[in-house]
Design goal:
alpha/beta; 8-stranded mixed sheet; 7 helices; 25% strand; globular
């Protein structure tokens, strides 16, 4: 793969330039599917690279973006923007950037993200957010969210996953994630499936915490959105078995969805 460090305009009302790492095949042939990768509250920290390598090996172009540097934000829950909705404009700016790349099939672009980026990934499937930002261009054709704070979508009408585009969705969670109850991933998948607006599936990794695919020393953070909105500590601990399984699941999902 060829690695390029790029920048492109967000679609936010306030002008922003978003930086990213673009990986494209060395051959110059066109029509490769592509995946946008969106980080969590701690910023770009290695999770994106872990998944990008496997996606590249499977033939995907990848673009991992840095939503925090564009805003001068510090890493962590205390300094991030007020809502993931604010960064949807970055994701759709990245979509337009990818659609303009000669190696990319503009109609076969997916999105994946972790925690905050997982929320962005799911909200980008809702037409009320996506349609005004994508314009006449195709939207994302597959959505893979890792531990995307599952309780919020049924609790807050502003976050409701209704009016979906119909693109397939994969949600991967850990049963020991203290943002949610242990079965929150299954309940969210069931709620989306019941509305019949998009094909959805999920996988929960027993005993895995939030950030189980983050290959760094264990860390406890405090987030007001954790514990079903009550706030409190969240352990993030690497689970190598779950991480590898989730990566393989994501590659298989995108391979099928963007075939």
């Amino acid at each position: 793969m060829r690695t390029s460090y790029v920048a492109f305009p967000s679609l936010a009302e306030t002008p922003l330039q978003v930086a990213g790492k673009l990986r494209t095949p060395l051959d110059a042939s066109a029509n490769h599917p592509a995946i946008l990768i969106c980080h969590g509250s701690d910023g770009v920290d290695g999770r994106g690279n872990f998944h990008a390598q496997a996606l590249n090996d499977a033939g995907f172009v990848t673009l991992e973006i840095d939503m925090w540097s564009a805003r001068g934000s510090k890493r962590g829950a205390a300094a991030r923007p007020g809502s993931p909705v604010e960064t949807l404009a970055d994701a759709f700016g990245a979509l337009r950037f990818l659609q303009a790349q000669p190696e990319v099939d503009a109609d076969r672009i997916g999105i994946m993200g972790f925690s905050w980026g997982g929320v962005v990934t799911l909200l980008s499937a809702a037409r009320r957010f996506a349609d005004p930002l994508r314009g006449d261009a195709p939207g994302f054709k597959a959505h893979c969210a890792h531990y995307p704070v599952c309780w919020a979508y049924e609790a807050d009408p502003r976050m409701a996953l209704t009016g979906l585009s119909g693109a397939p969705i994969l949600i991967q969670t850990g049963s020991a994630d203290t943002y949610d109850h242990p079965d929150a991933g299954e309940k969210l998948v069931a709620a989306i499936a019941a509305r019949g607006e998009a094909p959805v599936r999920g996988r929960t990794y027993a005993g895995s915490t939030h950030g189980f695919d983050r290959d760094l020393p264990a860390q406890t953070i405090v987030d007001p959105f954790s514990h079903n909105g009550a706030g409190g500590p969240v352990l993030m601990a690497y689970d190598p078995v779950a991480a590898v399984a989730a990566r393989a699941e994501a590659v298989a999902f995108f391979t099928q969805a963007l075939a």
